[in-house]
């Protein structure tokens, strides 16, 4: 898997853009498919369902009535057995290959809210099972009814918290069906189009009311105003604040800024923390002990900021972290997750770049001042 | 700029792979052809072995037919030696490689599958003929696999004289031979009746009748009657060879109507419906499905 990741990194030039990485993955799949069909042209019929039609037709080679008492010639069956085994393996592997990017998109799209690992695993396994069932049932009405009876006897019900999770499950079933009826091309297109559409929906936050401002736009402007520089210090005139705030709100804001100042440190020094670690966990106590042991090893310093408990859902733990140059973001997250798959639902590290931006702006200003001279 | 060489290299790899497609043989075809080759070799070996024995009742090969051919009826050989057969009820023609037991192709008659009581098939020159029990003759040209062939229908006008069960092509007489399974004319009921239908004549003179006295044959074999289920022409002698399903018998007569031999078939035939003899001396008999599946059996001939 690591090698595969490196291959995708190589093709995408290390780009972290999901669309590029998905395109690279499907490109690799296409190359692998072409190579496979080149060496095993008999699999070509699996793309379009022609193979299924061929199976439904009369056998190309009749059974030998002399060499086999039961009327079945093992030699005559050798070809079809080999072909059948090959095509069945290909069907299962293709569902795996086509569902992998779907799970990646699922995990990425649900990073904020936290995703359910069992759904991720179901997305991988479910299409294989569906394909296997369809392969077994084929055109047999009797088998289909028998399967209905068996499935009716097994109760499996689970509540999916998000409608989008159901969509992913339906996609997994569709890919399994398409692979099972040996129309891999449809499964491929399902996977490709679904993933790209979902990434675009995610990217452009589709579905939000166009009249409602985004969270970013709500916060960006006042923050820019407060932090921005002008001749007087900031662009929000004090009289506007006087009109907008009450003494209680001013006290609350002052307390928060004082807290942030304590965390960040004094001006002229390096900030004490440059990243926020967010961990979602169902077992806060156990997770906290593990996280803090891990942070000791991979960060310069850290500070437990707060825990937000949610009823019926995993709690969120926030840590302020000062990162080390020698340890990457992935390295920190790997250390956090290592060996604690059961406790930690999700972990994310957001590294701030405000200091770097401020330094960049200062350099720019210096250059502008030097130029007229 | 850095991205261009990689993109070009990837595109070239893809193009190279696509352009090589088709160079490899199909794995399934390879296995099938190897099995078919083994079967052909085994048939040749059995033919060679049977040359040293006088007992020709042991089959050289036997192929179990698919479900769609459970009602197999007539057999016919093309001029280049390919075996054609058909279903009793549906106008569909199958080509089977009798040496390897491989289904080569199948094609249908008309726009949709026509239904009828098809009892026999013959190939004359470039045309294929199928005969119904009521004497209707369907003429069509051979078609490709999966294709549909246009056809012409001729009424022989013999529905009141006979119930037909087989047809063959006599090259020497340039005629189709219709084997009469059940003679409806009371005056000829003790005879074996074959009608000749000339292909190069007009309707007034094209039909002639050959009635063969078989009283001696019946007495010698203990049969009460003979009901031919198919007819073919021996390519070595030009004699007419008839198959009788009800009696499980095979009989050879000269074009002049003299009986050459008549004998019972080996016991393994449950409902023989079609007969053909190849130029390389192989007798092919088809059996319709009954308690056992439909089969094609090959014997050494004569």
Short summary:
The complex is a heterodimer of chains A (373) and B (302). Chain A has 373 residues and is an alpha+beta fold.
Key terms for this structure?
heterodimer, A: 373 residues, alpha+beta, four-stranded antiparallel β-sheet, elongated, B: 302 residues, Neuraminidase, five-stranded mixed β-sheet, 3 helices, 21 strands, 16% helix, 42% strand
How would the blueprint of this fold be written?
The complex is a heterodimer of chains A (373) and B (302).
Chain A: H1 2-11, H2 18-39, H3 50-56, E1 63-64, H4 74-109, H5 117-137, H6 141-153, H7 163-180, H8 184-203, H9 215-227, H10 238-244, H11 247-264, E2 275-281, H12 284-298, E3 299-310, E4 313-323, H13 329-337, E5 344-351, H14 354-370
Antiparallel strand pairs in A: 2-4, 2-5, 3-4
Helix pairs in contact in A: 2-8, 4-5, 4-7, 4-8, 5-7, 7-8, 12-13
Chain B: H1 3-19, H2 27-50, E1 61-64, E2 72-77, E3 83-87, E4 92-97, E5 102-109, E6 118-124, E7 127-132, E8 136-141, E9 148-149, E10 151-155, E11 162-170, E12 175-183, E13 191-198, E14 207-213, H3 215-221, E15 228-233, E16 240-244, E17 249-253, E18 259-264, E19 272-277, E20 282-287, E21 295-300
Parallel strand pairs in B: 5-9
Antiparallel strand pairs in B: 1-21, 2-3, 3-4, 4-5, 6-7, 7-8, 8-10, 11-12, 12-13, 13-14, 15-16, 16-17, 17-18, 19-20, 20-21
């Amino acid at each position: 898997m690591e090698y595969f990741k490196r291959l995708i990194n190589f093709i995408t030039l290390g780009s972290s853009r999901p669309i590029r990485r998905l395109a690279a993955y499907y490109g690799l799949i296409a190359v692998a498919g072409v190579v496979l069909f080149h060496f095993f042209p008999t699999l070509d019929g699996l793309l379009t369902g022609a193979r299924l039609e061929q199976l439904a037709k009369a056998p190309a080679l009749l059974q030998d009535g002399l060499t086999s008492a039961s009327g079945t010639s093992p030699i005559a069956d050798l070809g079809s057995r080999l072909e059948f085994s090959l095509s069945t393996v290909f069907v299962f592997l293709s569902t795996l290959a086509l569902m992998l990017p779907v799970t990646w998109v699922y995990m990425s799209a649900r990073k904020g809210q936290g995703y359910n690992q069992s759904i991720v695993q179901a997305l991988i396994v479910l299409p294989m099972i569906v394909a296997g069932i369809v392969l077994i049932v084929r055109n047999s009405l009797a088998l289909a009814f028998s399967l209905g009876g068996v499935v009716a006897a097994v109760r499996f019900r689970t509540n999916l918290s998000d409608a989008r999770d159901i969509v992913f499950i339906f996609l997994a079933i569709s890919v399994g069906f398409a692979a099972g009826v040996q129309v891999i091309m449809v499964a491929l297109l399902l996977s490709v189009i679904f993933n790209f559409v979902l990434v675009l929906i995610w990217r452009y936050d589709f579905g939000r009311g166009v009249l409602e401002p985004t969270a970013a736009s709500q916060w960006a402007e006042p923050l820019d105003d407060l932090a921005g520089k002008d001749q007087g210090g900031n662009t929000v005139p004090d009289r506007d604040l006087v009109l907008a705030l009450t003494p209680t709100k001013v006290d609350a804001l002052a307390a928060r800024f004082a807290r942030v100042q304590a965390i960040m440190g004094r001006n002229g020094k390096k900030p004490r923390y440059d990243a926020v670690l967010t961990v979602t966990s169902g077992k806060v106590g156990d997770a906290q002990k593990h996280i803090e042991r891990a942070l000791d090893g991979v960060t310069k310093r850290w500070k437990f900021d707060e825990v937000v408990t949610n009823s019926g859902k995993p709690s969120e733990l926030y840590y302020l972290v000062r990162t080390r140059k020698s340890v990457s973001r992935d390295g920190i997250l790997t250390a956090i997750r290592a060996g604690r798959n059961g406790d930690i639902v999700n972990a994310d590290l957001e590294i701030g770049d405000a200091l770097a931006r401020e330094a960049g702006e200062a350099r720019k200003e210096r250059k502008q001042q030097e130029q007229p001279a | 700029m850095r991205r261009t060489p990689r993109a070009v290299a990837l595109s070239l790899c893809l193009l190279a792979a696509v352009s090589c497609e088709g160079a490899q043989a199909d794995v399934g075809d390879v296995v099938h052809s190897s099995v078919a080759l083994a079967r052909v070799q085994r048939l040749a070996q059995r033919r060679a072995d049977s040359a040293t024995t006088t007992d020709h009742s042991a089959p050289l090969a036997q192929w179990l037919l698919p479900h769609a051919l459970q009602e197999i009826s007539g057999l016919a050989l093309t001029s280049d030696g390919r075996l054609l057969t058909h279903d009793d009820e549906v106008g569909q023609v199958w080509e089977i490689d009798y040496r390897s037991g491989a289904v080569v192709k199948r094609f249908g008659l008309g726009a949709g599958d026509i239904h009828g009581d098809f009892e026999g098939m013959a190939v004359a020159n470039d045309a294929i003929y199928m005969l119904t029990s009521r004497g209707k003759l369907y003429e069509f040209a051979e078609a490709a696999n999966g294709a549909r062939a246009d056809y012409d229908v001729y009424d022989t006008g013999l529905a009141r004289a006979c119930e037909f069960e087989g047809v063959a092509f006599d090259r020497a007489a340039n005629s189709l031979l219709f084997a009469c399974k059940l003679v409806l004319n009371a005056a000829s009921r003790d005879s074996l009746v074959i009608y000749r239908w000339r292909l190069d004549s007009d309707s007034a003179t094209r039909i002639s009748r050959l009635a063969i006295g078989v009283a001696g044959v019946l007495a010698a074999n203990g049969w009460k009657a003979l009901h031919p289920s198919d007819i073919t022409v021996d390519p070595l002698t030009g004699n007419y060879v008839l198959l009788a399903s009800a009696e499980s018998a095979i009989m050879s007569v000269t074009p002049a109507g003299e009986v050459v031999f008549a004998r019972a078939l080996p016991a393994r035939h449950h409902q023989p419906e079609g007969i053909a003899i190849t130029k390389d001396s192989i007798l092919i008999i088809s059996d319709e499905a009954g308690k056992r599946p439909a089969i094609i059996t090959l014997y050494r001939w004569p």
